[in-house]
Amino acid sequence: MNTNNNVYTVIYTTVIVVVAAAILSVAAMALKPMQQANIKAETISQMLMAAGLTDTDALSRMSNDQILSMYSEKARAAFIIDAAGQKTGELNTEVSDIELQDNLKLENKNIASGNPSLPVYVFDKDGEEINVIPVYGAGLWGPVWGYIAFNASCTEIVGAYFDHSSETPGLGAKIKDEAWFRDQFKGERVNFSKPDDSFDIVKGGAPAGVKDDSQVDAITGATMTCNGLEAALDTWFKAYMPFLMMKAEAAAAEVCCEDGCQEGCQDCEQTNNETVQEG
Amino acid sequence: MEYISLFVKSIFVDNMIFAYFLGMCSYLAVSKNVKTANGLGVAVIFVLLCTLPLNYLLDKFVLQPGALSWLGESFADVDLSFLSYILFIAVIAAFVQIVEMVVEKFLPALYSSLGIFLPLIAVNCAILGGSLFMQQKEFLNVGEAATYALGSGIGWWLAIVALAAIREKLAYSKVPAPLKGLGITFMVVGLMGMAFMTFMGISL
Amino acid sequence: MNEDLKKTLLNPIFKGNPITVLVLGICSSLAVTVQLKGALVMALSVIIVTGISSLIVSLLRNSIPNRVRIIVQLVVVAMMVILVDQVLRAYAYSIDKQLSVYIGLIITNCIVMGRIEAFALGNKPIPSLLDGLANGAGYGMILVIVAFFRELLGSGTLLGFRVLPASYVPNNLVILPPMALILLGCIVWVQRSIQKDLQEK
């Protein structure tokens, strides 16, 4: 057979390409649900770790389904807010159809253009409310991202978890691997008075033990990764600032109402009325 | 400013050879003298600069999840990203083939100096690697992708010319017999890589 | 015949090792050697891809039109790589993430194309399969050796388990890219000291 004539060549190439494409499409479609489940479970486990609801050891023994049901169990609500901190939509937390707003890359662009749809995940930890928000930015080699957990009034960070796509193992990768790095975020607060630079990762300089200075220690040898992470924190905290401040004010007002003071609390009447109605 | 920063970073910090070891096979094989190294380096710059923006457009308008939405609403859910490897390599191979034919026909002088390297380039990891990193880095527009391509290409060219220059001198050195050739070249590249690491702190 | 098969299988692992003797496929090899686990998975992926693509091309060898030979080979290799990548993404997600673009770069790994061109196109399917597997294994072996030293010295661990005492200060230099090359140089040094016939003039 003459394998060098034109018609044969064209037909042969077409057949090969079509067969290959068919095999790949079948494989991709068959494996897609598992791949998506992996991604979803990973995102969720990062949130759960940030919120302090589980740890790496426990997670490594859990299947994807167990992680999903744990999320559904612990989540009080999940919703989307806009740039002004107003709620614009709900995210389903039912285990059968968990919705996440996990396209952080896209939102990072949207923050820059001033029109983001930012997710807030509210968890229940032993009766306490925990608000988890994502952060995203560029590290040295690729993106770095993470989840930051706040207390009910959003005035104090209660946990954090970071991940990266390709930071140097043993150096930049420590933002994920070293527990001390994320643990030092606990107890820190976001500096509301400096919206453009509300958090610092300081090279060898964060005063030890001082918790409310919005500063943590950087990782030795990973300056670029830490700078990138700090920029990510600053950008995303700024985007969430209206929401965080609203939560903080509402919490302050609540304390104020309980104490019985009246001046300067616009929310008091409303809150009292609601209590009356419910009662 | 963004562009300059990206450009400098892709030459020195994200250097294809020293940071990612991409295109090592031809890098080691064709770095025995400066002249041929220069030819291959220029060919790499050229092919990277042409294929990377092409693949960027392909990725943006065909492959990414939802990228086909310009065809109509019903295509908005199509995700062809699993085909990206095969399409990228096809674009590269086809491009190299076409360039080879065009250069051979119209610019025989260039062909005799550059042409022999073109087939080598289709399977040069730096070219496919450039496209894959482009996909991972998510550039905002073609301009950024082209800047990255140019920077990476120049970085590769710089690395191969520098190594070739060292190897020309190395021929007169007394190297232990088992290390001669390949062994010492690996080590020299390693040392050059360390030197390039000093660029890592650059911020623009 | 059996002697031949044995030679096909054993030669690429040491004497004709694709990396240290033929200088093929170093591209994707070094960046994944920071940790042993990644290197093992990478090695396994390359073995599967070289083996099966060689087999497929060998089965097709009498029907492939010569002019589009390279493209057909690329399609076969790329298909195998995508399959491996998709399977890893579904069953070993964390490792797939760690290997990132380097799985895709197996396509341009010179070993795969090199063995197809040099061996599979002219040989029967079974020897081609063995040749592919063996070359993948020879490649994988070097990866694993380099990764062994880099993880041991760079992190004090092996496969994530702590091996060296906690008092060992990890050597950060070993983790950085250049050390992979220097280690590879040392491997070549050792091999060529033993096999003097490989030494270059």
Average pLDDT level of chain A:
81
What global shape of chain B is seen? globular
Strand order of the largest sheet of chain A: 2-1-3-4-5-6
**Largest sheet report of chain A:** 6 strands, antiparallel
Q: Helix count of chain B?
A: 9
Describe the structure.
The complex is a heterotrimer of chains A (279), B (204) and C (201). Chain A is α+β, with helices and mostly antiparallel strands and 279 residues long. Chain A is built from 8 helices and 8 strands. Chain A has helices spanning 6-50, 56-60, 64-74, 104-113, 174-177, 179-183, 223-259, 267-278; strands at 75-81, 87-90, 118-125, 128-138, 143-150, 157-164, 200-202, 215-217. A 6-stranded antiparallel sheet of chain A has the order 2-1-3-4-5-6, with helices on both faces. Chain A has a two-stranded parallel ribbon with strand order 7-8. In chain A, strand 5 (143-150) and strand 6 form a beta hairpin. Chain B has 204 residues and is mainly α. Helices cover 69% and strands 0% of the residues of chain B. In chain B, helix 3 (34-63) crosses helix 4, helix 3 (34-63) runs parallel beside helix 7 and helix 3 (34-63) packs antiparallel against helix 8 (142-170). Chain B is globular, with a radius of gyration of 19 Å. The N and C termini of chain B lie close together (8 Å). Chain C has 201 residues and is mostly helical. Chain C has one domain (2-198). In chain C, a hairpin with a 2-residue loop joins strand 1 and strand 2 (161-162). The longest helix of chain C has 31 residues, at 125-155. The chains are: A alpha+beta (279), B mainly alpha (204), C mainly alpha (201). The interface between B and C is large, with 50 and 49 residues.
List the topology elements.
The complex is a heterotrimer of chains A (279), B (204) and C (201).
Chain A: H1 6-50, H2 56-60, H3 64-74, E1 75-81, E2 87-90, H4 104-113, E3 118-125, E4 128-138, E5 143-150, E6 157-164, H5 174-177, H6 179-183, E7 200-202, E8 215-217, H7 223-259, H8 267-278
Parallel strand pairs in A: 7-8
Antiparallel strand pairs in A: 1-2, 1-3, 3-4, 4-5, 5-6
Helix pairs in contact in A: 1-3, 7-8
Chain B: H1 2-13, H2 24-29, H3 34-63, H4 84-106, H5 108-114, H6 118-122, H7 125-137, H8 142-170, H9 182-197
Chain C: H1 2-10, H2 36-60, H3 69-91, H4 93-99, H5 101-104, H6 110-118, H7 125-155, E1 157-158, E2 161-162, H8 172-175, H9 177-194
Antiparallel strand pairs in C: 1-2
Helix pairs in contact in C: 1-7, 2-3, 2-6, 2-7, 3-4, 6-7, 7-9
